[in-house]
Task: structure prediction
Amino acid sequence: MLADIITLFTPASLVTALIAVNVIAFALFGIDKAQAEAGRWRVRERTLLLWALIGGTPGAYAGRALFRHKTRKARFSENLHAVAALQVVVLAGLALWWLWGEGALRLPG
Result:
């Protein structure tokens, strides 16, 4: 069963999932901006940050810039930057592991 689940994680499916997450993150910024202007319910900041955390950081930054939304909220900006920094660290760690770690290219010596 685990092998069946692992086979679902193909490069194409991961790229598709990342595209979907970024479209959703982008859309949520637009929805939240429209709702704010109309004086209606809002998307929680925690929800916006969660979509960024699960891979939608580019979509979040794009939505933030295009809709000019949440750009003056220092605390939100700090949290979004922290999410982006965390993702850079994780990706760098994975790249190093892949290059020099367990099952990949080993340096002589």
In short: Residues 77 and 101 are 34 Å apart (CA to CA). The mean pLDDT is 89. DSSP finds four helices and no strands in the chain.
